[in-house]
Amino acid sequence: MAVPVEEAIAALSTFSLDDEQPEVQGPGVWVSTERGATDSPIEYSDVSAYRLSLSEDTKALNQLNILTQEGKEMASVLYTYRSCVKALPQLPDSMKQSQADLYLETYQVLDLEMSRLREIQRWQASASSKLAADMQRFSRPERRINGPTISHLWSMLKLLDVLVQLDHLKNAKASIPNDFSWYKRTFTQVSGQWQDTDSMREELDDLQIFLSTRWAILLNLHVEMFRVNNVEDILQVLIVFVVESLELDFALLFPERHILLRVLPVLVVLVTSSEKDSESLYKRVKINRLINIFKNDVVIPAFPDLHLSPAAILKELSTYFPKFSSQTRLLTLPAPHELPPHTYQRHYLIINHIGAIRAEHDDFTIRFASAMNQLLLLKSTDGSDVDWSKEVKGNMYDMIVEGFQLLSRWTARIWEQCAWKFSRPCKDASPSFSDYEKVVRYNYTAEERRGLVELVSYIKSVGSMMQRCDTLVAEALWETIHAEVQDFVQNTLASMLRTTFRKKKDLSRILSDMRTLSADWMANTNKSESELQSSHHGGEESRANIFYPRAVAPTAAQVHCLQFLIYEVVSGGNLRRPGGLFGNSGSEIPVNDLKQLETFFYKLGFFLHILDYSVTVATLTDLGFLWFREFYLESSRVIQFPIECSLPWMLVDCVLESPNSGLLESVLIPLDIYNDSAQQALVLLKQRFLYDEIEAEVDHCFDIFVSKLCETIFTYYKSWAASELLDPSFLFASDNAEKYSVQPIRLNMLLKMTRVKLLGRMINLRSLITERMNKVFRENIEFLFDRFECQDLCAIVEVEKLLDILKHSHELLSRDLSVDSFSLMLNEMQENISLVSFSSRLASQIWSEMQSDFLPNFILCNTTQRFIRSSKAVPVQKPSIPSAKPSFYCGTQDLNSAHQSFARLHSGFFGMPHMFSIVRLLGSRSLPWLIRALLDHISNKITLLEPMITGLQESLPKSIGLLPFDGGVTGCVRLVKEHLNWETKSELKAEVLHGIKEIGSVLYWMGLLDIVLREIDTKNFMQTAPWLGLLPGADGQILTTQDSGDSPVVSLFKSTAAAMVSYPGCPSPTSFHIMSKQAEAADLLYKANLNTGSVLEYALAFTSAALDKYCSKWSAAPKTGFIDITISKDFYRIYSGLQIGYLEESAEVSSNSHERLGDSVAWGGCTIIYLLGQQLHFELFDFSYQILNIAEVEAASVIQTHKNSHFAMQGWEVLLEAMKKARRLNNHVFSMLKARCPLEEKTACAIKQSGAPLHRIKFENTVSAFETLPQKGS
Fold first, then answer.
1. Where is the CYRIA/CYRIB Rac1 binding domain (predicted)?
2. How far apart are the C-alpha atoms of 720 and 123, rounded to whole Å?
């Protein structure tokens, strides 16, 4: 069944295409199918229908408007004119013969530019003549209605303003005379070949006079005006209108006010320079009023980077108009650079008004939103009350007018501040700075830039808010305007016709004409016009007319005619009438009626701007002038200024660098200035090269903007994460904990921006930020790894902490932005993405660090379970630590110093915290690779030690007996030295000791790793055991809570699946069945991981397997089957000799043997002895043990003889104490080895972090435990 079109449209209207993107840019242009508020073109084609003898006025008005538009185009040509001379090539001496061709080509290029100047010359002559003729028409005696309309006054003033701007531009542009001089020179060179060049030369001379004469256009206008001496009246009318409009703030839009300010000094000069009654002006307008206006506005915006000064204009024109030179009060006005800055900059600088502007903005937006809500409610209500409807729409109309006034006032402040800054360059700037840098880059303080950003954001936000509601308020505006007009013409004028103008036929005729041309009798519910006219003679008071609201606004012609007729009623067409526009001097109209006429007259002026709604909003929010700098480009003689001098970019950079985080929401607003300037370049100035320059700057600055914004975002989230990860006890103990807190910034708004409007393009800012954030996170990880590679192994705790901060910042950012997974980026930077890659970059660096620095240079302190760097170790050359921004550490300097203080606590040793960090960083994937590399290092060391130990064995006597007790300690020590004939083997001894030390260090390192892994396994077991139905038993065994059946997690999902399958309303029972199967798989996986082995036991088994190859050499079996107490070749004898040797060295005062070896030697030597089965031999026949026994016997015998035992042992106390410490350490090591690796069970314990057996990774020249040992349980 087909759906009716009406229903389909109604259904489509319920869909919303709006997304969650906030509006943080200025208004844009969009296509709308709804009726908008801009439906009234400014034209006067229907004037003739009203039969008011205004046809001649209308033609002149249209002619003036056309001339004004043409003049603006001419001004654009002059403003954007750039010198061609700079681009002319210079011929080398070798090409002098081609000079004629160069002149010809140069002439052809310059002739195109000069033709535009000739066109401007011809146009200004024509425009001046037509403007003068139009002014002279108003004094003709045959004219029936003498007074000009208000629209006509405005058209005259706008054309005069264009002529003044053209003259000012011609005077300011130095490149134009330069190019003309080149053009004239080339014309002289090439014209010799032409015929009949007299007319061209004459035209050239005229153009030269025009370009070289200052104020040539104004002088020509003066000549045209006073050909017939009768324009003083209209000039005085214009001055009165300008003065009253400025004093009463009649101009709704700021461009109109600036036009009035620019033409007023010129009008004063023209009037006072006339031959006839030049002083009559001051009878109508007191000179003090003019002086006050000139003093209040000492600088007037003319062009983006050009300003006018009334005082300067008056002084300069006094030399060209001699009669004006007598106006001393006007000529003594100070120029802008002569004014005290503190007095006037209070008016011009935005920062002095930003508080009031902020309050105005907040108040207006609240009331505007409230009015919009009322209007929406009215639209959704059927059959609403007429009075309420009129009130709501009237309130909306008032809000629109107020919004236009606010926007006009705010934008005018920016124009005027820029003009003030251009008039007063920075005085403290360096002489090397360009003029433009002095007026822009170094002329705005940071506070002034922030104030300007804030005001620009207010203008753009209010403009965007008003533009979005264009189609919503259109009918309300039209109805309100219609009601205003009809109330005036049907009620107010009717009352006046019955009372004030009843006996004044001429005025009554004008009022009747007003009703005829604008009254809407079709909407009237009372009497018709004919009935109303007949009732005028009835003598009874009629009630006010009631008319239906209609969305029918008056045309521009109707507004034009109404203003004309009201002015005719008030002034009677007398140009010389004293007083102002609505002054009561000599008028017979009552004050109340005059006030009503004045109020409606000024309302008519607002109507055209409100009807031209979109154009008005665009005009008031256009800030493109902040980019243009054509005048300073010419004066500075550069092609373009660097981006740092561009005011829009300065504002963007100010927001990014500002400590005020609230401004960051407005960071996109200054970029909207580029949209405005590009629109001006293409539509108003019509210059493609300007657009290309804007586009190039936008491309460059947007890249910088995104980079800086991403840096700000990354720094904020990094600081936030670092602040949250700070130790609470540290914050509690800190005297100034506030400096470690991070002020919140509303970045989620910017992170949602998927459509940034820039030069007609839609840019996905969110995608760009995501891309750069992914890159920055990878760069940060890369930097942390590079930094770790320049440090020792103790820095692993700091690396983990910094990675934790980075990971937490990634988690915080991921709430607002879809960035890559952190684990994916970490694996990518660790080069650990491949499925067959088990050695990560971090694991390789740890292993490299252990090989090159940790094992050779760190010594073990068994008491503290820590490795520390030996004070006697040779320094290892490492690359310098790379430098980076604070954001690559913890975000801010304060947070960096706080976390650095924690890192320093772990930088001087290697212990359990570092082992936890290694396990967490490497994980179950890379840790087995590192373990295997360390085990193969043990195998390699044993292989390297074998020939060295053989060399020591060869130096020993064939048999070594027990030490004699009767020799005492002194004799035994001497006897041991005689047995150990290793004086020539000192280097070999040192290498063997270092080799044994490294083996011991690796084994102890494995012991620490085993402790950490067991703790992690226990934690995992505690988390998974309840779900698997497991309990730890009394003897350490794992017990099952259920005798038979499934584990709790499997039972839970199976019962849930069975219940859902039996439920008839279940949409997809198969998904629950799949979940129960997944629970069974998880149950098997986690149960398989429970029986993990011991890394230390596996390392000991691996070492034992490596020693089996050398067992015959290091542990000879006794030939008789009994222990041979004289054997000297076993390993325990070698180690015993080495041990007593370095104990003797450590007992010496200047010795550093222990500081070089530490306790790792005992771990390495005792482990080898234990695994070779020589523990008992060592404990019986070790030299230091025997000496300790002898010392004990000797001390006991001394005590029995009542001698001083201290005297008997004199000289050996330090050595004996070192031997006792060594024996205690050896006993500790042997007890640990017996507990973890009983000799009767020499099997390898597989490493099962993930439940799978260790992959067989082979290293060159090493023994594989998987080739020599069976797996446990096989």
1. 156-217
2. 65
Q: Which of 274-288, 581-595, 620-634, 1189-1203 has the highest mean pLDDT?
A: 620-634
Is pLDDT above 90 for 383? no
At 543, the pLDDT band (50, 70, 90 cuts) reads: low
User: 498 and 543 share a domain?
Assistant: yes
Q: What is the distance between the alpha carbons of residues 1146 and 635, in angstroms, rounded to a whole number?
A: 84
**Can you read off the two tokens belonging to residue 142?**
């045959």
Is residue 234 predicted with pLDDT exceeding 70? yes
Q: How buried is 844 (Cβ within 10 angstroms: 0-12 exposed, 13-18 middle, 19+ buried)?
A: middle
pLDDT by residue (tens digit) across 744-765?
Answer: 888 888 898 888 889 888 899 9
Q: Identify whether 399 is part of a domain.
A: no
Do 1055 and 1165 lie in one domain? The reply is: no
Q: What are phi and psi of 858, to 5 degrees?
A: -100, 140
Flag whether 1220 is in a domain. yes
pTM assigned to the model: 0.84
The two structure tokens encoding residue 963: 């030490």
- Residues with Cβ within 8 Å of residue 94, at least 6 apart in sequence: none
Q: Exposed, middle or buried: residue 1267 (CB in 10 Å: 0-12, 13-18, 19+)?
A: exposed
Continuous H helices in 830-911: 841-849, 855-857, 893-905
Q: Report the C-alpha gap between 855 and 295 in whole angstroms.
A: 85
**Closest Cα to residue 68, out of 152, 135, 163?**
163
Task: Dig out the tokens for 843 from the structure.
Answer: 């694991």
Mean pLDDT of 709-724: 94
Cα distance between residue 396 and residue 474, in whole Å: 10
Q: 143 or 271: which carries more pLDDT confidence?
A: 271
pLDDT at residue 1269 is higher than 70: no
Closest CA to 55 of 165, 133, 145, 125: 145
Gyration radius (Cα) of the chain, Å: 49
At residue 674, the pLDDT reads 94
Q: Span 575-593, mean pLDDT?
A: 63
In the three-class reduction of DSSP (H, G, I as helix; E, B as strand; rest coil), residue 1195 is classed as helix
Residue 1264: which domain range? Answer: 928-1015+1097-1268
Helix (H, G, I), strand (E, B) or coil at 1032: strand
* Residue of 639, 766, 643 whose CA lies nearest to 698: 643
Q: Using CA atoms, how far apart are residues 428 and 1201, in angstroms rounded to an integer? A: 99
Q: In the predicted model, is pLDDT for residue 933 greater than 70?
A: yes
Give percent of the chain above pLDDT 90. 35
Q: Contact, 678 vs 694, CB < 8 A?
A: yes
Cα–Cα distance list, 77 to 71, 422, 683 (Å)? 10, 22, 13
Q: Give CA–CA dist 1076/93, Å, rounded.
A: 94
Q: How far is CA 363 from CA 374, 458, 473, 697, in A?
A: 17, 12, 20, 37
In a domain? residue 716: yes
DSSP state of 1255: P
Angle at 254 between CA 248 and CA 260, to 5 degrees: 60
pLDDT bracket for residue 1215 (50, 70, 90): confident
What is the phi/psi pair of residue 1032, to 5°? -75, 135
Tell me if 497 is assigned to some domain: yes
Please, what is the average pLDDT of the chain?
A: 83
Comparing CA positions, the residue from 1270, 1245, 1258 lying closest to residue 932 is 1258
CB 365 within 8 A of CB 465: yes
Residues 1125 and 1051 in one domain: no
Which residues make Cβ contacts (< 8 Å) with residue 678, sequence separation at least 6?
624, 691, 694, 695, 698, 759, 760
pLDDT of residue 634: 84
Residue with tokens 């709604």: 613
Number of domains in the chain: 6
Asked whether residue 1078 falls in the same domain as residue 1103, the answer is: no
